Amino acid sequence: MSWVSELLAGSANRTIATVQNGVEVLRFGGFQTGARPSPFEVVAQCDMYRLRHYFPDSAIHPDWPPVVLVPPMMMSANVFDVTSDQGAVGILHDLGLDPWVVDFGSPDRESGGLERTLSDHVVALSRVIDSVHAHTGSKVHLAGYSQGGMFCYQTAAYRRSEGLASVITFGSAVDSLSGLPFGIPAALAGRGARLVADHVFNRLSVSGWMARAGFQLLDPIKTVRARWDFLRQLHDRESLLPKEQQRRFLEVDGWVAWSGPAIAELLRQFVVHNRMMAGGAVIDGTLITLAEITCPVLAFIGEIDDIGQPAAVRGIRQAAPRAEVSEALLRAGHFGLVVGSTAATQTWPTVGQWVLWQDGRGTRPQGVHVMEAERGGEIDGAVGLSSRIGRSAGALAEMGIGVSLGLAEAAVSVAHTGWEMTGEALRTLPRLARLGELQPHTRVSLGALMAERASGAPDEECLLFDDRVRTNAAIEHRIDEVVRELIAAGIHHGAHIGVLMDTSPSAVIAIAALSRLGAVAVLLPPDDDLVSAVQLCEVADIVTDPDHQAAAAATGARVLILGHGRTADLNLTESDRVIELDRLDLSAELPRWYRPNPGRASDLAFVFFSTTGGRRVVKEVTNHRWVLSAFGTAAAAALDRDDTIYCLTPLHHPSGLMVGLGGALAGGARIALTRGVDPTRFADEVHRYGVTVVTYTWALLLDLVEATSPRLAEHHPIRLFIGAGMPTGLWHKVNDRFAPARVLEFYASTEGDAVLANVAGTKIGAKGRPLPGSAKVRLGGYDAATGRFIEDDHGFVRRCADDEVGVLLAKPRSGRDAAPVSMRGVFAEGDTWITTDHLFRRDSDGDYWFVDNRNTVIQSERGPVFCQPICDALGGVIVIDLAVVYPCATDSQDVVVAAVTVGKQGILTGAALTAALRGLPGDQRPCIVHIVDRIPMTPSCRPLSTALRAAGLPEPGETTWYHDLTDGHYRQAVT
């Protein structure tokens, strides 16, 4: 029976060993392995971090390239030195690298730690790079794990790669909305993240034990199995010792608290707005984009990584198009990328080889290859979070799995579609309802809308300009300040005040301050005819910036300079005709007559200028008209807080103030302003600001389309171009150049509230259909030859049939529109309509197409000829950039002439002209088509024909074609 004794003795020994080892674990939190951390010294220290320099004796090797390792927020910096023999710092040192580690400490134990923001981490990391560079004299290889890698990307963008040799990341997601589990819609995930950021982490931080529990809950079956295996082998101390430090790190020592503000900022910027991909993230008040990373990038990807899923990690390829991006794909989970046997044998040796290769002392590491631009499908054998949870559930219950998955897939599909429809309705319906509630006496204005926005979200970004950010609260404070300055200068409610300023935050503030005061802003275009514009509107005072002070003073009006400190360089002499608003004494109390935002819907708010038929026209816009455009734009373009509108259109143009600024305010979007149309600046700012919507007028986008900018070649965040007057040829080019972005074309009448929008964008050139909330429109029959309406048998204006050209009429709402432009008894007895003086046709689908202005219809020998259809047809010729149609007077009748500009290396032929114009009736085609070097344009890029018309008939030659009436072809007019 010796075997029985041996069995009993073995069991007893096993029990005793289990008890002894268990006591040691309970007492010390784990086995005492005797292992010591790698040696380091703290080189720099501040409230945010301690900078560890490992193996400080290696300073005798000045040629060793420095590598700075960055941990995630929730994990201890010791993650890079879990085991001295297999830890990152030890392996890198053995390979001839100089390892440094950033220790952010535990926020709950640091002074002000729980108030840290995401920006604090990025700015701190930038300071670390400067410190290491100063210490070593070499460029730094910046390497980060998980969120630490996100910090590395953001810091590289913040510094625009200055001082960096390369960026290395491990399981660091870039496209936060890619690869969401269970097919959750990105919009739903974004709104959930916003809810948590705004209502949870604004008052709550995450403790270390919560971070540990969250990590373990990602795979609860694996966690339970690991603990069971540990208990089952507790008697065998020697078998557990090799993995003890790793186990203790994950179970006890490795987790630190997260600060609530940092989590909230991360959720808002990189989940809600996905700004790692789109750009426009704000770090310490500076706008950044990963598109400005130019140093080499190496991204480690775990095939079975639940947190940094491959699709999300690979977003860096699209987000940083100017960088050489490589990847290393490993069969590892999130933690296994940096700790454990795979990390020791593959990750860190590859990092060492990469650094030496970048330093010119080796070859490209095996397993490292250029990241593909697009990678369809999933990696073979890859296991995502959804499948991991599904597998865990399957371990508990396998019955009915097929049915469950089928139902889940169907539910997700329905939920996805339903959420998109619901989200769209939630955005659009309140705006339309608000428009429907407007009455002539309703208090509403630009100033009121800005105050409403500042009250609801004071800390959110409002204006982006010159790479800086102004919050809603900051803009609101400045508006109120300028109101006091204007009152001190003697400006009163109802006064017509000129505004002559470049597009800038100061211009927006000046216009908003006039609105808040109840004054009328007269938006003066910076052209040669400024004096006549001032006289036309009887403007006595002009608010201007220092750059336009001389031009404003030349008009004879009193000049109010708004420079916010910039006027000191002007050396102005004291004069009652030139007043520096920023230097006025504001100590006096506001007068009792002042009431903020007194404007009502029917009140005049803005005055604009335009040129029609070579003459200047005044456009008056009421608060109701402005609000209609603002909320109509927001609804048609589905604008929300995720959008950033890039205002290419100057603010003195109606589209800039009503569509761009107004749409952004109504939709809650950020407003990005720019100093002008420049292709290089445009390419940089689109990424840096995270621009999703771009405004335009007429041919404003032509230079941007023609410019070759590789920075926008592969990826851009733009989804929409909104504006008015885009030529059809340019429309085609914009669609091709900026795909998948589309064009949203608007039309708004000068008189009345007629607003049309081509929301679908499928009919290029069409103005679309009436916006909900705008005035009812109808086409009245019109005889273009006589200039009179066509009447029916009862003497009323005849309604137009489909595709018949007529005058667009808008039905006014009681009390809102000026009586002098109203017509009564138009289609029925007692009705009232307002004529727009614009000719349209309506197709069978109900879409309206602009044909001409009543005053610019050409009366030719063949009858009246409409200009816009000719321009639209010529826009179909790919080599033509712009076209303008005008009459040239002869002895008998006007001759219809079309002037075109041709793109570089473009060749225009008579056959191309014949094919393009064949769709027009013979009497609606131009008699002559000729090429010109340039077509003059207004400051808002509207093509002008005045100078061409004055030059007379074009000379015959190789660039001139005439319409042969015998067969309808266009033939070259030779001398």
TrEMBL record:
Under the heading Pfam families, the entry gives: AMP-binding
Which residue numbers delimit the AMP-dependent synthetase/ligase domain? 452-788
Q: Which domain of life is it from?
A: Bacteria
| UniProt keyword DNA-binding present | no
Q: Which GO terms describe its biological process?
A: long-chain fatty acid import into cell
Q: Which Gene Ontology MF annotations are present?
A: ATP binding; long-chain fatty acid transmembrane transporter activity; long-chain fatty acid-CoA ligase activity
A Gene Ontology term for the protein's cellular component: plasma membrane
What are the protein's UniProt keywords?
Answer: ATP-binding, Ligase, Nucleotide-binding
InterPro entries the UniProt entry points to: AB_hydrolase_fold, AMP-dep_synth/lig_dom, ANL_N_sf
Q: Does the keyword ATP-binding apply?
A: yes
Which family is it part of? Belongs to the ATP-dependent AMP-binding enzyme family.
Please identify the protein, giving its name as recorded: Acyl-CoA synthetase
